[in-house]
Amino acid sequence: MSEGIRFVFRGEVREIDKIDPTLSVLRWLREVEGASGTKEGCAEGDCGACTVVLGELVDGSMQYRAVNACIQFMPTLHGKQLITVEDLASPDGALHPVQKAMVETSGSQCGFCTPGFVMSMFAMKVSEGRPSRDRINDVLAGNLCRCTGYGPIIEASEKMYDAGPETAFLEEEKRVVALLEGLSSDAMVETADKGRRYFAPARVDDLARVYTDNPDAVIVAGATDVGLWVTKMHKDLGTVIYLGRVKELKEMRVASGYLEIGAGVSYTDAWDEIKKHYPDFGELIRRIGSTQVRNAGTIGGNVANGSPIGDTPPALIAAGARLVLRKGEERREIDLESFFIDYGKQDRGIGEFVEMVKLPLPKAGSKFRSYKISKRFDQDISAACGAFMADIEKGQVKDIRICFGGMAGTPARAKHTEAALIGKTWDEETVKTAMAEMVKDYNPLTDMRASEAYRAKVARNLLYKFFVETSQVGEKVNTRVVGDRELAHV
């Protein structure tokens, strides 16, 4: 057991013996360190003004990722490097190429959002070669600007590469690597303050034990949802167990016909592998939150959270995914769709946690599509999210699975609609008959995102869209908006 947390900040190892498990990195920077460059805009991971960069040793190399400091809990920094906008300029005051490019392109006006943009750009520059315009748009989607518009900032994101490689930064990186290697340990991290406790195991067996001993604890992976419980709902979480250090939960592999995704695998890390097998699912992940959210949030957390508007469960259920649950030394495996019992209620016992999601590899010839409907194309909560998987042979529907989120208290399959399709000819008449059956499957609600009537109509129309894209009709029409730039027709 290791008491307290240790991380690299301003070029040295910081040690904190006792700290509130839910103190945000943003609050610590501003209230304890007096580092006011990192701003609070929304306090919910939406605007990007609080963006910082975390450096972490992964397989012996440094990985740099932008995250939202407003919902990142301080103890999760253990074993990592924290980089803020104050760290970028040289000791002699010379601006970093990212900052210099922002000045030269007039990318800042009031300046409130600027540090967050700079840190998102910085993470891109130290991690990637010169990006495409689409890639820049993706990286900056989680940073909102109220003054200049995005043209000059995008221009700065291109111009900053003219300065060449990050020579000075990479030289300092060698020293940081040595510091982080000194912090590496498989010991459980524990800290506490004011009656609140925090555990961060490094092995899944330790996680199973500590959760058995503390079944009332709140499990946190990326905190992209739990963080809002603290910042918006002002909940006292009591005991927190963090999954981000558990090695086994961060693993992903292909085995026995499945893509096995550990519950701690982030959206960012899962993205490339999933889109190899399910291009549409990959595009869905790209539209989940922002780069900062995808860097922190996990697919396992999205499932365990049980939200009816979670974006990954409909796609996973349509594909026939299974779930591995663990309690102590015992494991059980269930179909993912049976995990969701009712609104806010999942098939998960006391002390039991999600260990792995098993996504079946698609069979040859299977047709899969997923569609996210939201008011904003990027970084928005779905009004409805639908996914379809069909086996069609010689013009007949041999099997089909349809699942929607946002249409009921849980992600749910459209079983009446499926029954109206299976064994029938895959043509417009059959599909329109099945569309009428969907009223038996869903009784959607009306809320700020969409009305009942809108959701019902969209769901029917998405089935028709799936038909168009998987039939000869789709060869003659373009069904995708510009945002689906990586897909075209797949």
TrEMBL record:
<dbReference type="InterPro" id="IPR016167">
    <property type="entry name" value="FAD-bd_PCMH_sub1"/>
</dbReference>
<dbReference type="GO" id="GO:0051537">
    <property type="term" value="F:2 iron, 2 sulfur cluster binding"/>
</dbReference>
<dbReference type="InterPro" id="IPR005107">
    <property type="entry name" value="CO_DH_flav_C"/>
</dbReference>
<keyword id="KW-0274">FAD</keyword>
<dbReference type="InterPro" id="IPR016169">
    <property type="entry name" value="FAD-bd_PCMH_sub2"/>
</dbReference>
<feature type="domain" description="FAD-binding PCMH-type">
    <location>
        <begin position="191"/>
        <end position="364"/>
    </location>
</feature>
<dbReference type="InterPro" id="IPR036318">
    <property type="entry name" value="FAD-bd_PCMH-like_sf"/>
</dbReference>
<dbReference type="InterPro" id="IPR006058">
    <property type="entry name" value="2Fe2S_fd_BS"/>
</dbReference>
<dbReference type="InterPro" id="IPR001041">
    <property type="entry name" value="2Fe-2S_ferredoxin-type"/>
</dbReference>
<dbReference type="Pfam" id="PF00941">
    <property type="entry name" value="FAD_binding_5"/>
</dbReference>
<protein>
    <submittedName>
        <fullName>Xanthine dehydrogenase small subunit</fullName>
    </submittedName>
</protein>
<dbReference type="GO" id="GO:0005506">
    <property type="term" value="F:iron ion binding"/>
</dbReference>
<dbReference type="InterPro" id="IPR014307">
    <property type="entry name" value="Xanthine_DH_ssu"/>
</dbReference>
<dbReference type="InterPro" id="IPR036884">
    <property type="entry name" value="2Fe-2S-bd_dom_sf"/>
</dbReference>
<dbReference type="GO" id="GO:0071949">
    <property type="term" value="F:FAD binding"/>
</dbReference>
<dbReference type="GO" id="GO:0004854">
    <property type="term" value="F:xanthine dehydrogenase activity"/>
</dbReference>
<dbReference type="Pfam" id="PF01799">
    <property type="entry name" value="Fer2_2"/>
</dbReference>
<dbReference type="Pfam" id="PF03450">
    <property type="entry name" value="CO_deh_flav_C"/>
</dbReference>
<dbReference type="InterPro" id="IPR016208">
    <property type="entry name" value="Ald_Oxase/xanthine_DH-like"/>
</dbReference>
<dbReference type="InterPro" id="IPR002888">
    <property type="entry name" value="2Fe-2S-bd"/>
</dbReference>
<dbReference type="InterPro" id="IPR036010">
    <property type="entry name" value="2Fe-2S_ferredoxin-like_sf"/>
</dbReference>
<keyword id="KW-0560">Oxidoreductase</keyword>
<dbReference type="InterPro" id="IPR012675">
    <property type="entry name" value="Beta-grasp_dom_sf"/>
</dbReference>
<keyword id="KW-0285">Flavoprotein</keyword>
<dbReference type="InterPro" id="IPR036683">
    <property type="entry name" value="CO_DH_flav_C_dom_sf"/>
</dbReference>
<keyword id="KW-0408">Iron</keyword>
<dbReference type="InterPro" id="IPR002346">
    <property type="entry name" value="Mopterin_DH_FAD-bd"/>
</dbReference>
<feature type="domain" description="2Fe-2S ferredoxin-type">
    <location>
        <begin position="3"/>
        <end position="88"/>
    </location>
</feature>
<dbReference type="InterPro" id="IPR012175">
    <property type="entry name" value="Xanth_DH_ssu_bac"/>
</dbReference>
<dbReference type="InterPro" id="IPR016166">
    <property type="entry name" value="FAD-bd_PCMH"/>
</dbReference>
<keyword id="KW-0479">Metal-binding</keyword>
